[in-house]
Amino acid sequence: MADAALRLTTLAEELLGAPLPVRLRAWDGSESGPPDAPTLIIRNRRALRRLLWKPGELGLARAWVAGEIDVEGDLYAVLDRLAALIWERGDPGKEAVHPVLDPRMRAVARGIAQIAGPWPPPAPPAEEIRRRTGALHTRRRDKQAISHHYDVGNDFYEMVLGPSMVYSCAYWDDASGFSLEDAQRDKLDLVCRKLALKEGDRLLDVGCGWGSMAMHAAREYGVSVTGVTLSREQAAYARKRIAEEGLTDRIEIRVQDYRDVRDGPYDAISSIGMAEHVGSVRYREYADDLYALLKPGGRLLNHQIARRPEKDEDAYKIDDFIDAYVFPDGELAPLGRTVATLEEAGFEARDVESIREHYALTLRRWVANLEAHWTEAVRATSPGRARVWRLYMAASALSFERNRIGVNQILAVKTPEGGGSGVPLRARDWR
User: Fold this and answer.
1) 213, 330, 340, 431 — which has fewest CB within 10 A?
2) Nearest to residue 235, comparing CAs of 326, 303, 147, 138?
3) List of long-range contacts for 42-48, beta carbons under 8 Å, 24+ apart
4) HSE of 179 in the Cβ direction (CA atoms, 13 Å)?
5) What mean pLDDT, rounded, does the chain reach?
């Protein structure tokens, strides 16, 4: 077959009713599509069988992780042009037509099947998490999910995150020469100032990661910090860093579920990039537990990714690719649902700051770090795992830029009887 690319382009344009926005290069050496467009490379017909078996995002992701498809040139440009076909399926709330019920899609599928070769489809790549059974967000299942995502090797995360070892949205400035490390330091300091930390306070850092927030708060504000994580690799790394900084008398790192913390009350709680793991069935429990762990007048800073509201406003969801390869069982909710749940638990929401564009900038820096250390990253994990992270971070950057998802810092207070919140009248100064 010497014309696979042309045949595939024709089928794709028949389905889309418009020209294919990328150039195709097939396994037989054939090419088709606009000569000046970014190129999508289909290295093996197995990729087509994956798409027929799992149309859309998950099938494409499996082919990408297996190395059966690739891009030539700018990955962002290819993803940006394909976004409308893969992720943006019409207006929010509009029901999509199932492929089996759409005659045009059935005809295209038959055409692709003729090119794809014999069935059955190949098994999913080894990097895909095995299908979980049982209730969502039990302690055991959450621990397994966290291990899948975070216990891929601290060396790998050092390459991607850089010296700051902060795995959440940084806080950028327009200043020339502003580095990722500068932006992460400023984000940690912003959290500390919103929490009004002062010497002698007790801070609980929920989902403490590699200890960066705990270290900044202890070193710069003189607080005592308890950090909890479900990742043993993170905890070991954090303890080593803390010892090297001479902060072991101020910071305790525990491998512990936040639901098992019993030594409150704390003056403040930081939860940075952790609540996405909690899930809809546990979110009110999460809010209740953190409320109970705070002293009256204590503050919670909840830093969390949110999805755009849709027709089913109460639904929590995450993309199939991310669920299978990145954040198993992770769920995103609209901002309003999160604020409402915190208020239902008793918190007073005092400030919400959207920093959506900041996360796009952060992710692009992480992708650049990964690409600069590609050989070492593959050696530290696997070719498939490195490809997972490159796709996940690049696609996520575009999702933030396109306002498909956002990220918000919610400052909430356990306001005591009498109503004195302790928040300054001009709170955004955060003094």
Assistant:
1) 431
2) 147
3) 42/4, 42/5, 42/8, 42/68, 42/69, 43/67, 43/68, 43/69, 43/70, 44/68, 45/4, 45/115, 45/116, 45/117, 46/121, 46/122, 48/8, 48/112, 48/115, 48/116, 48/117
4) 8
5) 88
